[in-house]
Amino acid sequence: SDERPTKLTKLEIVEEPENEQYEFETFVRCWGCSGARLDIVPEDVQRVVHAVLHAVEASKGSEIKAWAEEVTACSHFEGLTQAPAADFSSEALHQCSMCDKRDNLWMCLSCGHAGCGRKQYDGSGGNNHAIAHFEQTGHRVSVKLGTITPEGTADAYCYACDDNKLNPHLAQHLQAFGISVTAQQKTEKSIAELQLDYNLKFDFSMTTADGTQLQPVAGPGLTGLRNLGNSCYLASVMQCVLGIDRFRDRYFPSAADHFLACSQLHPAQCMLCQLHKLANGLWSGRYAVLETEDGKTQHQRGISPAHFKAMVARDHPEFASMRQQDAFEFLQHLNKQIDIAERSVEGGALNPTSVFDFTTEERLQCTKCNRVRYTTQKSSLLSLPVAKRPLTAVEGAPQEFEPVQLAESFGMMTANETVDGYMCPACEQPTTAVKSTRFATFPKVLAVQVRRFEFVNWVPQKLEIPVQVPQGPIELGAYRGQGLQPGEEALPETDDQLPADAQPEPVDESVVAQLESMGFPRVRCIKAVKKTGNTGAEPAMNWIFEHMDDPDIDAPDSEPQGMAAAADPAAVEQLMAMGFPQAR
Q1: Concatenated DSSP letters of 503-555
Q2: Please, which residues have CB within 8 angstroms of residue 168's CB and are 6 or more apart in sequence?
Q3: pLDDT tens-digit readout, 545-581
Q4: How many C-beta atoms lie closer than 10 Å to residue 350's C-beta?
Q5: How confident is the model at residue 368 (pLDDT cuts 50, 70, 90)?
Q6: How far is CA 12 from the centre of its chain?
Q7: Are 233 and 324 within 8 A, CB to CB?
Q8: Is the pLDDT reported for residue 515 higher than 90?
């Protein structure tokens, strides 16, 4: 027919059966009989073989969770009226009631009718007989045969909602047709599994934004990382980090030596083993080999960083999940994990994260007496503000913003900030102060986050603000502090100020900046970061919410270190065994 096909509102992904692509031979061997092949297999062994062949491996289960859409229940499964058709027979469920299709079958939970799935745009798939049954009878809910498991799960669909749904009463609904859930075996891939296969096969990253095809590359330092499911943040960070010479030189050349000398019983639980392994995989070139198919050069397969991800995210509930994450937060977490692991090797002398270390200088000046105070803060990552200048909104289109130069964000970071109610130790009364932050020292590698987000009802919303970064060198000399200058008079030291060697461990200013961008007062941000031990923005934010009603939530944390409770000697000894200095 030359008629234009009707618009597709649902696209069904249909698996291409492997038995149509390959020939399979399955048999059982008895290793107690020197591997003899069994011609007659006991029935209980047959059931075990069937379960093994159709089981979903653990890694695939995690990937399915990452890619699958969130499926919820609907009211149409509640109080369902069920009346099996007069000609209903469980034997008839192996074939569509209206054609000869024997796969991708959907059973109506109202009458037991078995119908095939939707027809695809290219003519493949089913013949629309399941949805035709709904249109003729109004029976709204169905279950996909072949996806029913003994645990009571299966693909379910509501035609009234026109979406995949969760059936919380599946066992009860099937029992009305004399079908026992516990006796079922899964024989077909679920919609989530088919979507996973489709997504993993899809060539996400082989073209640029303008559609230009990327050229296959191979060789040392050109090894790709395979997507584990929403793991782009990990792949991008690790490619950048292990591309830094200090990290490469630390973990690549000595990988074989570490594998031989490592005392960890389980290498999968050794952070250094996983770092050496990943560096070796990326830089050896063994896994960056171009493949050919039908005489055409294909892209390399790359390596899967599954063990590394499991190790680095072991104690972090967010990074251990398969959800999308923030690359900057992952870099913070990664640096902390490497720092802890490296303390056991020559006291941390080989720790490559030092390439990120720098010091900021904060200048505070009282506007009444004009005296100044300079303080320094150690940091390793920089979080920059960004100017938000919306362009004229177009109805129905996402909000667009005016491009921002990176230099403008550096200027905002180092700009003067007014501090009202400052208690000047020289004037001995509340005054107004001016504060500014600049670099005291620069790192070898400056890791920068531009805060392109805002919080709406405490939910972060990303702002699509283009940040233009110069292609050549970036001059940062204008943002460097100079310390106390001739003619400047320093503010007197307060009585409760601690000596330099007794100062508590500094807070992570990048985390403080993130919290401040959410609208929290700086005092609360600093206190939260201290209380949560510099473990990141999320724990600090949770601490603020939990202590919002504390009467001293906005009181500066100025307790002298000498007033802290005496440390438990046993606990100190345990921490020192992990590589921490005694003073810390």
Answers
A1: PPPPP-HHHHHHHHHTT--HHHHHHHHHHTTS--HHHHHHHHHHTTT-TTTTS
A2: 73, 77
A3: 778 778 778 776 654 443 344 555 556 655 655 556 5
A4: 14
A5: very high
A6: 28
A7: yes
A8: no
For residue 212, the one-letter residue type is: T
The arithmetic mean of pLDDT across residues 402-413, rounded, is: 94
Nearest Cα neighbor of 150 from 126, 121, 114, 186 is: 186
Is the model's pLDDT at 21 over the cut of 80?
no
In the numeric block, the tokens 């007659």 are attached to 40
Which residues, in sequence order, are CB contacts of 172 under 8 Å at separation 6+? none
End-to-end CA distance of the chain: 79
Q: How far apart are CA 144 and CA 114, in angstroms?
A: 9
Number of neighbours of residue 336 by Cβ within 10 angstroms:
17
- Binning pLDDT at 50, 70 and 90, where does residue 331 land? very high
Residue with the two structure tokens 């919002």: 548
Residues whose CB falls within 8 Å of the CB of residue 368, separated by 6 or more in sequence, listed in order: 424, 427, 431, 432
What single letter denotes the amino acid at residue 93?
A: L
| Residues 301/322, Cβ–Cβ less than 8 Å | no
- Give the integer Cα–Cα distance in Å for 482 and 372: 13
pLDDT-derived band of residue 200, with 50, 70 and 90 as boundaries? low
494, 487 Cβ separation under 8 angstroms = no
Is pLDDT larger for residue 579 or for residue 113?
A: 113
Residue 366: Cβ within 10 Å count? 21
> For the segment 428-457, what is each residue's pLDDT rounded down to a tens digit?
999 999 999 999 999 999 999 998 887 777
Q: For residues 55 and 327, which has the higher predicted lDDT (pLDDT)?
A: 327
CA atoms within 13 A on the CB side of 36: 7
More confident call, 55 vs 228? 228
- Burial 432-454, CB ≥16 within 10 A → b, else e: ebeeebbbbeebebebbbbbbbe
CA 331 to chain CA centroid, nearest Å: 12
177 by Cβ neighbours in 10 Å (0-12 / 13-18 / 19+) ranks as middle
CA distances from 466 to 209, 444, 449 (A): 15, 26, 13
Q: Which long-range contacts (CB under 8 A, 24 or more apart) does 480-483 make?
A: 480/438, 480/439, 480/440, 480/442, 481/360, 481/361, 481/363, 481/374, 481/438, 481/439, 481/440, 483/361, 483/374, 483/440
Identify residue 110 by its one-letter amino acid code.
S
The structure tokens listed for 77 are 């499964």
Radius of gyration (C-alpha) of the chain in whole angstroms: 31
Whether residue 465 contacts residue 388, with contact meaning beta carbons closer than 8 Å, is answered with: yes
Query: Alpha helices of 343-474 — where are they, by DSSP H?
Result: 406-414
Residues constituting the chain: 584
